[in-house]
Amino acid sequence: MRLALFPAAAWRALAVAGVVFAAPAAPLAADAFTAQQKAGVEKIVHDYLLANPEVIREAIDELKKREEAAELAMREKAVNDLGDKIGNSANQAVVGNPDGDVTLVEFFDYNCGYCKQSLASVQKLIEGDPKLRVVLKDFPILGPDSVETAHVATAARLQLSREKFWEFHKKLLSTRGHIGKAQALAAAKEVGADMDRLEKDANSAETQAALKDVATQAEQLKFDGTPSWVIGKEAVVGGLPYAQLKAKIDNLRKCGKTAC
């Protein structure tokens, strides 16, 4: 516990116990106290926390706020460092308006339950906002089937038009149950993909490089789950409801930030 934040009541109690010293300019080392003073401090702290257990919760809440603030700052720096690579890379799919004034980037996994839930929100945003540009980045983190699916999806992106890929993406992501290579190939076939080319492209060096590029970006952004989003300078991990996504997009247009 930092001395500067030690409760005033506890300071008074320490004084009564005979542990009295001037406010230090720097934290005191443990050997600055005698054995008797150390015992007095420990007892006062022990008794104070037992009498005021809410202090522990307050400290935990404060620590959580500081950690979240540090994480947000770290991700914002990563967004700045990555710059145009996040929203304008050859290794991504673009749906919605390719020339839109706001870009929403989603890192997703086809086997992610929250990504499946988010599909309806993304689709609603695109349908209701003709100026929205959406970038989809395959980030397969949920096992070998997700990786194989991402290979097929990346190969599909290489040959399908933007509209056809969006149809493929919606079809595959809305598939019930676990998704693997078989389901991805079936979805690609349904939208008219060249299956011979698809099989070849799925195992190509270009596909491997594309997925590695996305994984590298995700690592820099400290994304450890899906869906993860980049909106303006903000990077967020976790499912976001439609209203929250829309508010961030609206704010970005209004004041250049996701929160005005």
TrEMBL record:
InterPro entries: DSBA-like_thioredoxin_dom, ScsC_N, Thioredoxin-like_sf, Thioredoxin_CS, Thioredoxin_domain. GO terms for molecular function: disulfide oxidoreductase activity. Residues 80-254 form the Thioredoxin domain. SUPFAM superfamilies: Thioredoxin-like (SSF52833). The keyword Kinase does not apply. Residues 1-22 form the signal peptide. Keywords: Coiled coil, Disulfide bond, Oxidoreductase, Redox-active center, Signal. Residues 181-208 form a coiled coil. PANTHER family: DISULFIDE BOND FORMATION PROTEIN D (PTHR13887:SF14), GLUTATHIONE S-TRANSFERASE KAPPA (PTHR13887). This is Outer membrane protein. It comes from Methylocystis echinoides.
